Fold this sequence. Notes:
Layout: E1 2-6, H1 14-25, E2 32-36, H2 42-54, H3 58-80, H4 84-107, H5 114-138, E3 143-146, H6 165-179, E4 184-188, E5 191-193, E6 199-201, H7 207-217, E7 222-227, E8 245-246, E9 248-250, H8 251-259, H9 270-275, E10 280-284, E11 293-296, E12 308-321, H10 328-341, E13 347-352, E14 355-361, H11 366-371, E15 378-391, H12 398-407, E16 415-417, E17 424-430, H13 434-445, E18 454-455, E19 476-478, E20 481-483
Parallel strand pairs: 1-2, 1-7, 2-4, 3-4, 7-10, 9-11
Antiparallel strand pairs: 5-6, 8-18, 10-11, 12-14, 12-15, 13-14, 15-17, 16-17, 19-20
Helix pairs in contact: 1-3, 2-3, 2-4, 2-5, 3-4, 3-5, 4-5, 6-7
The structure holds adenosine-5'-diphosphate, aspartic acid (ASP) and magnesium ion.
Amino acid sequence: MIVMKFGGSSLESAGAIQQATSIVERHLDQNPVVVVSAMGTTTDRLLEAARSAARGNSYAAWQQTEALRRMHSNVTRGVLGQRAEPFLRDSVTPLFRELQVLLVELSEGRPFTPEIQDQAVSYGERISSLIVAEALRHAGIHAAQVDARKVIVTDEQFTHATPLYWDTYARLRRTVALVARDRVVVMGGFIGSTSTGASTTLGRGGSDLTASLVGAGISADEIQIWSDVDGMLTCDPRVFAGGWRMREIGYEEAREMARCGAKVLCPTSIEPAMRQRIPISIRNSRRPEIEGTRVVSKPRSLPGIVKCVTCQAGMSVVHLRVKNRGMLSSITDGLADLFAREHVSVDLIQAREQGITFAVPDWPGLSQVLRKVDESVEIAVEQDRAAIWLVGEGVASDATLKRALGALSATDVRLISQGSSSLSLGIAVPESDLRLAVEALHAEFFATPDGEVFAAPEFAPLGARQPAYRQSHPRLALGSQVVPAH
Ligand code: ADP
Ligand code: ASP
Ligand code: MG
């Protein structure tokens, strides 16, 4: 058995769903279990609608849900043709109606709790899984939709729930593994429920975690993550197009890349697969002929090679200076707790004699958190920073740092951190320098990449026929080369 997870961008249009269907069809001999995200940007749009309702703007909430309903109906018609109407009437419309009722209640004053937020966004994956299962049936494939909330059991940390592993694995074995023997099971990713039945979500990007959980629960031979990039690339193509594809990476490397901004995988998705040594393949649903990147326990590469330049914009660098050094550890512990409660990760930590400096995402609650720090601590915040990491087994060395600083001699590097493991080395730069800094680092570390470890970018040939849905993805022209916009 294998798990095939399709992300939102692989399901954003009728063409994309047909492409996903044909990819599944090619893997039928491996008994696939399909995990799907919400279509396109549905989760963001559901959140927006729920927030409009919570502000009392019921008209805006209604308009936003109507637009989503129309988008889902049009895509379904594009896939199912004449079969669409009865399916929409019986399966999709009732769910949108339920959602509308929930939003009306919110606009009338029902408290907008994290629990209600999860209930509202769960409709994205619940609806997309119904549509994909029907698309598979339309293509002649025996498929069954399973409500993920019945099998993925979590704690009660709404919006960032943690799976209860043993309970979830037992349910996966009892239900999904059995049904998958003679049918393609389709489940929504990202969503689960508490043991008392309240809908929960696993944190943004959490469908990757669902795929890994399902893989571990059914002891799959492989977990495939189908996205809109050729694999794990040496750089986010949205920041610098033309990065190389890694052929194979280790689980810890993949987790560090994901933690440091390579959002093609969510960091929590590595653990369940790693524990059972199930390989994860990252593939491009738009170019299924490309092998992708395999995440395995022992990749074929030597330590010390920088494999990825990851980055995250929208950061602040915070400097804390204490008068009494003895206070430092209690202050940092207290701050770590406050940030953890907000689900904010602190990075690039650099401890000094009289204080500590670190980077955190710049979000509206930052100043409130910092106000809770003891008044005797001097605090300075630099906004509009970006973090950049060099990631790879064994890269956190003085030699790598020296090369990085040489490449960035024209950039105002503010903070350097060798990380808590040997897997990464991070720096902070002004956000306005981000692209140039990433390009300079990429040029330094990938001038002559090892062909055993990296594959050259596989550009689509000029004039090559693209599936119709690609037309909505503009392609960037760089000189005479055409670079696919990921
Ligand atoms: P999906 O909808 O398939 O879950 P995501 O948007 O979550 O897709 O993840 C895919 C995106 O991850 C890509 O479009 C790309 O911009 C981003 N990304 C960031 N860093 C990397 C990287 N190093 N390699 C590949 N993709 C990356
Ligand atoms: N739909 C969810 C999100 O947008 C989960 C996912 O795509 O993995 O975060
Ligand atoms: Mg994702």
